[in-house]
Design a protein that fits this description.
The complex is a heterodimer of chains A (377) and B (106). Chain A has 377 residues and is an alpha/beta fold. Chain A has 16 helices and eight strands. In chain B, strand 3 and strand 4 form a beta hairpin. Classes of the chains: A alpha/beta (377), B alpha+beta (106).
Chain lengths: 377, 106
Amino acid sequence: MSALVQEMVGKALKLGIPLSVQLDLTYRCNERCIHCYLDHHDHGEMSTPEIKDLLDQMADAGVFYLTISGGEILMRRDFFEILEHARARTFCIKLKTNGVLIRKKQAQLIHSLGVESVQVSIYSHRPEVHDAITKMPGSLRQSIDAIRLLRGHGIHVIIANVLMVHNAQDYAGVKALAAELDAQFVVDPTITPMMDGDRSILSLNVDEAALREVFQNEALVGNVEEFCAPPPGVDEDALNSLPCSAGHTACYVSPYGDVYPCVQFPLPSGNVRHTKFVDIWRHSPQLNEVRSIRLRDMPTCSQCTHGATCTRCPGLAFLEGNMRGPSYQDCEKSYARTGIPSENLKKRKASTRPLQLIQICAEAAPVQVAEKTTSGI
Amino acid sequence: MNSKHYLARSTAIAARALGDETMIMSATDSTLFTLNEVATVIWGSVDGATPLEDIVANEICTQYDVAFKAALEDAQVLVEALVGHGLLIVSDKPIGQAASMVTETA
């Protein structure tokens, strides 16, 4: 994060402005990825006028960074109408898509609308692996074709490589593919529970050995010694620190108008079909509760040596039952990174539960680790 | 700059007011800019129809303790910088409402 962006985030935090929002237009998708956390059935998506009105409200509330995602965004026939409206309201827009429906015309439109970046998920450079994960034959070829078209227009493309047991060894191949396509590469060893709390897909997470390999890879994390350094412990500043931007300068809106602190933090905080976006942002008891939490309020994490450096996701902690508690998956991550067990892991030492790995954060790394949340801004 | 200068914001930008400042991102290279309070007043007054000279006289000189000539000179420097980064368009005639950013429908 540049100093200027950091300054703007600090100012937004002080002013209580939702600087960054992820809006999912649909949960429908043309792929059926084995690790997906969404229910793809349409349970009543917002209409075009509803979304346009929401965009107007968000612009008025001060939202600057708008991530438009899904599902597959191009499954909505009104996608470009929505995108044009969003650009007319001068959002800085990042799109997340699998690219399968992007042809010349769509690439040209995305270019002409001045989108900041387009993120495309590529699971492997090998079609048999990628297509097995998406359950869509030919999807790797189609996604690569889309990336070429987008790059042909000079659009900033980010290839997101989510790692799981099926493709744990393929990140080097995807990174090479990204270089060939002149796209940015981010790797994310993160499989999250489904939004309804179903944790069965967590079995797809890479094992500890594979995660250690990622953490020890200089090409991915930069300075390995620094990245894997023992934690410095928790001081007063750390105790007063915020867990992440969820609910502070960022939030998430579902295709049904539900507002959550983050896409990975499914705490229902209001619905824009009943309440103005800005009123939910300012007055939702749920968001205000999330905002009130500091490290010192977390009984286990505040006592943990990893407290100041842990990438603990409050959403994952919430999904484990307590938004003030530790996220077991992040504890495992801190352990894999440093070799030092967290307080939570020590307490659960006797547990036979397999290690399941979630997100790493390597802000200083030359290859960024993908953000699942909107907290990266 | 001797005659009247009309200004319009580029459509290839993202922009948002943040308190009394404005953040602007160029869509061409993702460079982020911030405008201070006074520059934000000018930015907010840009409508394609009001000349810079009138913006300075009516919005700057009335809100801040500054002489018109000095304020206009500063404003011209700002405008030139913004034009240089592709954030503003300048013309010696009023600029009509920007054309739709897409020329065809999906």
